[in-house]
Design goal:
CATH topology: Neuraminidase
Number of strands: 28
Number of helices: 8
Structural class: alpha+beta
Strand content: 35-45%
Radius of gyration: 21 Å
Largest sheet: 5 strands, antiparallel
């Protein structure tokens, strides 16, 4: 195996699932070093990984779901795993390069695959202390303010040990300021953006999108606040998009073309708009007939995920006890996989695309050494040593509280 040219070795490794990739690291020091230390391998493997999600209620919940894609798109409904967190709420704030930024009795950066985590001090953040520790913090307030939190990997560091930044955007009328943490301390950016349109605020419940070293927040008029995590400079992208009443929106990234994407859905069609970098305009790239909306009464529907290859739409009929997520294959032009979301329609979901990987941050601990059992349960969602416990699925399907 060591004598294989690198491009042939990568072709083999890219086809392996996580469990097999872990086993391959034990066969050779050079292969282990290639998997763990070569940043190009992480990028290549992640780009070929099947779409997976981790999600919970936006307002916080006593559970977290992980929904990985199986070997076949139609076999999704039986592979979901579920972590129950008694007496404590979990908030997922971000997902990047196999790491999660989450709050559960404390702010953590965690890698569920390597089982390593880091407890962060968020007392220096105006936004996070308001969300989680303020005297009047409420579920709805937490849900809306959490979209102001950005979490990103510093991709300029080409080693297995990565560095991250947390960027909180502070919006006041026409002014945007930014507070930054590298995990050690909090500080304000020197950049402040002032806009002319006071009526266009950040889009509520819309998470920022990270691409090419920059976090992007969508505003109600279709324009974007962009923050470069390396230079710590911000700018306004003057793109324009005016949604129709009752239109469903999703701000996301098309991994195939590496461009910012805006999904807009009506009961008739779901449209995919791409931001063209040279003109800063939203351009209609594709329209899909929304065949999911039938004569049956829906209590809720929304587009919750997209990566350029697949689109996920969640809905719930009024006479159904659980919601359903449908997957549209963009390459085959057909609706395929689905799975029950086991979540009440009256609550919004925070759905994050999640690709497990082996990189880790500095100053982390193993979850086995932690006394936080809730964090340990979330970390066990990604397990390369055994198959999914079917009891989790039964619990998820029966959950309606």
């Amino acid at each position: 195996m060591n004598s294989l040219p690198m491009h042939l070795l990568d072709k083999i490794l890219f086809r392996l699932d996580l469990k097999s990739l872990v086993m391959m690291q034990c066969t050779s020091r050079s292969i282990k070093s290639h998997i763990l230390d070569d940043p190009s391998f992480e990028i290549g493997y992640s780009s070929r990984a099947r779409l997976s999600f981790i999600y919970t209620f936006s307002k916080g919940a006593h559970f977290v779901f992980y929904q990985p894609f199986g070997s076949q798109c139609e076999s999704m409904s039986h592979v979901k795993t579920f972590a129950s967190l008694p007496r404590v709420n979990c908030y997922i704030l971000g997902s990047c390069s196999g790491h999660l930024l989450l709050y559960t009795s404390g702010l953590y950066v965690a890698n569920p695959l390597t089982k390593r985590f880091r407890l962060l001090d968020h007392s220096g953040s105006m936004l996070l202390t308001t969300i989680f520790n303020g005297p009047n913090n409420k579920a709805n307030d937490t849900e809306e303010r959490a979209m102001c939190v950005g979490f990103a990997l510093d991709q300029s560091r080409e080693t297995t040990i990565k560095r991250f930044k947390i960027i909180c955007i502070l919006e006041t009328h026409t002014t945007y300021a930014f507070e930054i943490s590298d995990g050690n301390s909090w500080r304000f950016s020197e950049t402040i953006i002032t806009t002319t349109n006071s009526k266009s605020e950040l889009t509520k419940r819309m998470k920022p999108v990270y691409v090419e070293g920059t976090l992007h927040w969508l505003r109600n008029d279709g324009s974007i606040i962009a923050f470069n995590i390396e230079t710590e400079q911000a700018r306004l992208i003057p793109s324009v998009f005016h949604p129709e009443p009752e239109m469903k929106l999703l701000f996301t990234l098309d991994d195939k073309i590496n461009r910012l994407t805006l999904i807009s859905g009506t009961k008739k069609t779901i449209s995919v708009h791409t931001l063209m970098g040279d003109t800063s305009k939203w351009v209609l790239a594709r329209q899909i007939q929304n065949v999911l909306i039938t004569d049956s009464e829906l209590e809720y529907w929304n587009v919750v995920a997209y990566d350029g290859k697949h689109m996920v739409v969640r809905d719930k009929e009024k006479d159904s006890s659980t919601g359903v997520a449908h997957v549209y294959n963009m390459e085959d032009n057909r609706w395929g996989a689905w799975w029950p979301t086991a979540c009440q329609a009256k609550y919004n979901l925070d759905v994050f695309r999640f690709t497990p990987f082996f990189s880790f941050f500095e100053h982390t601990e193993l979850v086995e050494d932690s006394t936080n059992e809730h964090l340990a349960r979330i970390m066990r969602l990604i397990d390369t040593t055994k198959r999914t416990n079917p009891v989790f699925r039964l619990m998820a399907l029966g959950y309606d509280k």
